[in-house]
Every structure is written in C-alpha cells, then in structure tokens.
Amino acid sequence: MGGPGQQIRTTLAAIVAIGATSTIGFACKKNPSAPIEAPASGGQGGALTGKPLRIAMIAKSSSNPSFLSARTGAEDRARALSVQIGAPIEINWLTPSQEEGRVQARRVEQAVNERVDAILISCSDDKAVSDAIDDAVARGVAVMTFDSDAPASRRFAYVGVDDFKTGESAMAEMAGLLVSHSEGGLGGQGGKRPGVGRGARKDSIKVAILAGNQNAPNLRRRVEGAVSEAARHPGLKVAGTFFHVETAQDASAELLRAQTASPDIAGWVIVGGWPLYNRTLLGEMEADAANTRYKIVSINALPPQLIYVEKGFAPVLLAQPTYLWGAVGVETIITKVVHKKDVPQIIPLDLVRVTAANLGTWARQLKDWGFGDVPDEYLRLK
Questions:
Q1: How far apart are CA 358 and CA 181, in angstroms?
Q2: pTM above 0.90, yes or no
Q3: Which H helix or E strand runs over 208?
Q4: pLDDT for the residue 369
Q5: Is pLDDT of 44 > 80?
Q6: Is 1 strand, coil or helix?
Q7: Is pLDDT of 42 > 60?
Q8: Which H or E run contains 160?
C-alpha cells in the first residue's frame, strides 16, 4: 500500500515461509524487542522530549491467550519505539478478567480520567463501548481498535483480519475436509484447499459453528461469512450456531453438548479457538476416538491448540497474527500521536494456514513472538 501506509513501514521480516503478511509491512522478526529503523516519515520530528507517552490497552479478557500475545507485541514494540522517540512508552493493561462490554466502557472512562495519551481496544460489544470511545476522543484521547472493531465510533484506525472473509475461509476449509473425508480420508496434508469439491455431494453433510460471545462484532461477522460460504456448497448444511462464554471450559461443554444432541454433525467451524485452549475436549475425543467422526477447523493457532493438529482432530487452523495486534497498534498510535502523520483507517492482517505440513515453522514463529509454552517436540519439526 502506498501513501499513508508507507509512513508506518518497519524492517520486520515478512513471513514468507508461512504465507502471512500485513498490507503495511508488518510481520515476524527474530528479536521482537530489538530497536529497529524509525518510520520512513520520521526522524525525530515531533518526537517527545522525555515525557512518558501512556497507552491504555483494553482487550476482551485477560484470560484469553490471544490477548496476552497482543500485550506482548505491544510491550515489545513500545520498548523499541521508546528509543526512537526519546521518551518511555508505557502500556497500561486495563483488560477485564472476563468479557463484558460495559466493563470495557468503564475502563475506557478510567483511562481518560488517568490522562492516558491513547487507547488500544478490542471491543467485546461495539454498542456498549462506542459512546465511551466517542467521549474519550472528544476529550483529546486518540482511540484505536484491534481484533474487534467499533466502526460507528470515532476511533481513528482498526487493525485485524477481515472477519467476514475469515468466516468464509474457515467454512471453505471445512468443505474441503468433509468432501475429502467422504471420498476416503483426509490424507496427510490436512484436507483439500478452499473451494475444492463444491457441490460434489447431493446429500447434506451437517456442520456447526461455535461462535463465542454473540455481542462481539468480529464474531458476528465471522459467523455471517461462514454461513455465506456454506451456502455455496450444496453438500453442506449448517446445523446450528452455538454461542457461549468465552472460556475453554464453557466452549468445550457447549460443543460436546451440541454434538451429543446431534451426533451426525460432521464438522465444527470454531470462529475463535476457545475449546482448543486446553485438553478437555482432546481428552473426550481421544477417549471415544472410534466414534469421533467430526473434524474441526478453528481460528487461531496458539501453543495449546497445536496438539489438535498433530492428532488430526483439527487438521486446519487459521492463525491470526495476534502478536501483531499489539505491535502494529502501538506503531500506528505513535505515528498518529507523536509524528502527527495520517494512517490508514483499516489496517488488514492476513491469516496463516497451519497444518501438519508447517507445524514446526509455525511453532518456531510462536516461540519468537514470546510464547513460552510451545512444546519442544513441535519446535524440532522441519
């Protein structure tokens, strides 16, 4: 992207081997906390003169490892940019323990009262937080969203995946898996690529969508995308969309309850990854492996989820570059607030397709991004 996007390019190396980049040039690097080049706009024009710049970070919940990864990205990038602007950049973590839009709104108000310079927020409920965001902007605090947007608010930018396309991609992957499965097995590559086998079956194969918080705008759009994609495959039928509290325990319980009630569900599209964040579901699937007929395609590919790929229960994960939510968010805020430069309103990030074929490469990327719980056996894979 030319124009304003060029102003926030960095020297971070593209994830060419795994196929993920953002359109403004962000991607992985081996040492996330090391200082890197200043933005092309830059030099020290507009830089602070020793006064700390404070960014409040309000994710959906502090128990979700995706947001802990985003926090790491934000803190790493803040350290690097502090050197460049000649002043400390502080990340104030104001994320609630559980998802609740009204609590987030109060945290936005708290951040404004504490005189932060900017707010970086992932919205649990855009309707619940939009007024608070607008009030913050009116009081001189720059607000940016990540992961889950509040597009009707006065936030100046959003960074994250295209949620509708994310839902479409997940369902397209599922269509490929189920057609392949119905024709004699998944094989060793995690199923066919999106779009393969459309309309190949006349009888309906039931799929279900596990959808998390029904008030979250990003998840609603992913569900819409998944349903839209399913309609393009005459052989698929969406058996239901199931909402739940966004914890691994609640998500696993909801999936297992629905699967027991409808044992002919052949696939689960999980738009947020929650039940794969621990081994509760894995234990159930392994205990009844002979009767476990359903496959999973999930968004996200964090360390606890990788064993589901290894075991073949989730042959395809579509990973969001969660670290970049924070890293790109902080970079964009500094460009806007400190360097006084225009930035794109929408900064898209791409998904990374994770299968058994690139499990080792992705595991090492997670390790480079600061995840300390990546199993050694995956790090040793080619």
A1: 21
A2: no
A3: strand 205-212
A4: 86
A5: no
A6: coil
A7: no
A8: strand 157-160
Phi, psi torsion values for 265, nearest 5 degrees: -65, 120
CA–CA dist 237, 231 (Å, integer):
8
213-250 pLDDT, tens digit per residue, is: 999 999 999 999 999 999 999 889 999 999 999 999 99
Vertex 325 angle, CA 14 and 107, to 5°: 170
User: Residue 204, CB half-sphere, CA atoms under 13 Å: how many?
Assistant: 12
Task: State the maximum Cα–Cα separation within the chain, in Å, rounded to a whole number.
Answer: 68
What is the C-alpha to C-alpha distance for residues 229 and 9, in angstroms, rounded to an integer? 34
**How far is 148 from 46, CA to CA, in rounded Å?**
30
Taking residue 158's Cβ as centre, other Cβ atoms within 10 Å add up to 24
Q: Residue 257: what residue type? A: R
Reported residue count of the chain is 382
Phi and psi at residue 271, to the nearest 5°: -85, 5
In DSSP terms, which residues pair with 144 in a beta bridge?
120, 157
Tell me which of 99 and 180 has the higher pLDDT: 99
Which range among 11-20, 72-81, 174-183, 290-299 shows the weakest confidence by mean pLDDT? Answer: 11-20
Grouping H, G, I as helix, E, B as strand and the rest as coil, residue 319 is strand
